[in-house]
Amino acid sequence: MIPADGFIVWSVLAPALTLLGFAGITLLLAVFQSDRGFIATVALTGVVSAGVFALNLLMQAQGGLAEAGFGLRYLADVPATAFTLVVLLGTALAILVAQGTLGRMGLDHPEYYPLVLLSATGAIVMVSAGDLITLLLGLEIMSLAVYALAAWRTEARQSQEAGLKYFLLGAFASALFIYGIALTYGAGGHFDYAMLMAAFTQPGFEAHVTALLGAVLIIAGLGFKAALVPFHQWAPDVYTGAPTPVTAFMAVVVKAAAFGALLRIASTVFASLEVGALGALLPGVLSVLIGATLIVGNFGALLQTGVKRMLAYSAVAHAGYLGLAVLAADQAGMAAAAFYVAAYTLMSIGAFAVLSALMDDDDGGDGIERFAGLARTRPWLAAGMAVSLLSLAGIPPLAGFVGKVLVIQAAIATGHAALAVLAIVTSVVAVVYYARVVVAMYVRDPSGAARTPERRTARPLGIALGIAVVGTIVLGLVPGLWYGLVDHGQNLLVFVSLR
Amino acid sequence: MTAVTLVLLPLVVATVLLFARKTIVARAIALIGAIATFVTAVLLPGSDAVQVPWIPTFGAFIAFDPSHAGGVLALVASLVMVPTVLWASLRVESNTGRFLAALFAMWSGLMGLFLARDLVLFYVFWEATLLPSLVMLGGWGGPQRRQALLKYLLYAVAGSFAMLLTIAAIKPLAGAESYLFADLLAASVNLDVLTQTWLFAGFAIAFAVKLPMFPLHHWLIDFHEQNHPSGAADVAGTLYKVGGFGLFAWALPLLPEGARQAAPLLLALGAFTAVYAAIIATRANHLKRLLAYASLSHMGIVAVGLFGLHLAGLSGAMYLLAAQMVTTGGLFLISGMLHARRGSLDADSYGGIAASAPALAAVTLLVLFASIGVPGLANFPGEFLALLGAFQASTAAGVLAVLAVIAAGVYGVNLYQRLYQGPQPNPVADLRPLEVVVLAPIVAATLWLGLAPAAQLRVFEADAIITVERIEQAKDGVDVPLVAVGEVRR
Known about the structure:
heterodimer, A: mainly alpha, two-stranded antiparallel sheet, 20 helices, 2 strands, B: mainly alpha, about 0% strand
């Protein structure tokens, strides 16, 4: 059902509004409540309620009753709601990880959870946007909160640097993005994707160059958030400098949001530009970026000695695999990306949760020696880490494997065999750096000097790890549970409206 | 359902074993589990196929069918696993329960990959089986195990990912309905020669690593040298040399055109592997290195049988694969028994022990003879047919591969002499009752596979005919009556 302009459909906005409401509540609570655990629980309640709304919308969309708000500017079709759910999953797990570690690190300031909720609200707006202005709003809402979170450890230079670097480069990327929007508007005369598509495909449309230039700038702006090479420079430093729970949030939620938005634009606006003499330009640009991301991310990770920095580069590498799905930009690509991003969220959070449990209070001590002999000293943590890393490496029968097959299949089906080969070759490199940690945990003896701190794993952290690991295994064995829900791209609202 | 039980039962046993704290409890569970799994495997021939949708939108099924070549291999592998589990439970002293759990997990994975009739399912088992074998090497291996492990992992995963690419590509490119073997087989005729060759290359890399075959065999030697001296992990590793099976069951029938393009090169590599490894084996001193090279040489013969692309060679290669599970596996167990007596795997530290351990010597001689292809014992029928297939394709490759058989005679007899004959400085204990129990199934299987090959060969041939017919069709577009086949069968 597509409502007229100006008519607000509250149910469509429910997930984002719920999060926004809970962000306000937690902020108020933070003034009166000293019990941080309580605030975290309230925040989690908000995320779960938003998740219920989103799941309801997904079911509805899957049944062919996708809704939209403000014309087609805010969508609640299958990809939008699927990515919303992934964002909420990542947020919930990141909150649990934070709850389990921030206190120990002395970073448990009460504003943490409201900021996380606000950022997640922006992420949801981004993945639901059907309009460039809505997308920009979501992007800024999300980013502002994350800039603050990245600099959360105010007394540490590293963290300050992370925040500042992210903010400056982020502002620059936003500028590019806005310029891209302006050019696109100039070429098509509209902001919403559906009208842009209509304008671009109209016979007699001449402003191809302007539109393509706009598209390239939009790719650059979103590519920054998604950490696509060459817009990835900030990622390793910011990921390493930020406190580990923040890194976990950034690595999954920001990435999911950026890819949700990028996929939507690629499958609608960009797809309508793939005609004429310059038709191959956008796929060409994207292929180069993705190929470079795969190479830089994986080889960069191979060279790292710290596990946190390795995971930062691996996050860049995974942007490359997700990029394959963007390139496919069809129904299969959408579903593949929605699956991949869910799998990636689970396995990344699993790895970051273990990392948070092991690292020192000042965010030091992520060297690989910290993991030596972990299987003997902390068998459960080691097992969780092993499952997460093996899944990241794409070993079956874990979720990461299924995701990898799906995106590679989508790329091959749309004629990008060379990139698919590159993705496989770089995956072999990935196995080396992930396996190094697993081997250290299971084969090496615990080394005296770099011994794991003897502390109990906080319960919320354990819960997050448990959910992530079980999810990784279950999604690997029964991928249909999630893939069956997201593979209904024919309900893409923008396409419906054009018929 | 028997097939599903056979895959799940060892996995359940493995899970239970993880929680068995006391060694004696672990041993009891392992013994009961091994017998139960073996009984299930014996019930396998003639049981029903299973086919349940798994990932509908993806076209993957949970499909097992015991009536194909994999069914025979699953039975033989189970037969070898029983003594292996028994021996491991006696000889692995630290964390016995965990080691046995890994062994059972491998058992489950092997059953899955032999019985799977869906390509995705096959791949999942193919790769998942790697994990327990890594665990055994990493957890119980020798001092150089880290290097061996990384090397093994890298080779295996590089190969598997090449295959993954082929798997991801084959369905959309062929336009198949699903990943079921039958659907892929029907649809793969749509693929042109060039696409088939590329897709086949993906399979060939993966299977050449796991066959293994020169020049992708480097992991194998360290893998065996560094594994636990009991030899149990080596047996499991031997069973996991499933590259030949992958070629036979998936790559050759699905991509006959691609196979035809690549066959001359791979045939030559196979023949070279056979001779090269056999010659190194004649010079090896470390028992496990020697066995690793011997086994590599057998795999070369399996390869020439397969890439001859003739019926006799194809089914012979599968037969040799099944037989060497028993013989190479048996020899690894015997090397573990020798190690239990002297604490060394160096052939030079033995000599003349036949006098004090006549029964051990006799069993060794039997299994060793079977391994080098003496007629009437396990390896002979397969080796003979594989070589026949090689000769049908290329005389040069056939002659080269036969040289490997001669070299096998040299290292086999030589090894027996060095271990058991000559002056005897120190006597050793003869076979203990439990060791007799461990070796009995190996001896029985050696004789069974040597004396009664017909039934198993029929199953292999029924599968191989698909490949041969498709290759003949590709060659000249007509069905060729398979005369030569009938000759061989008798």
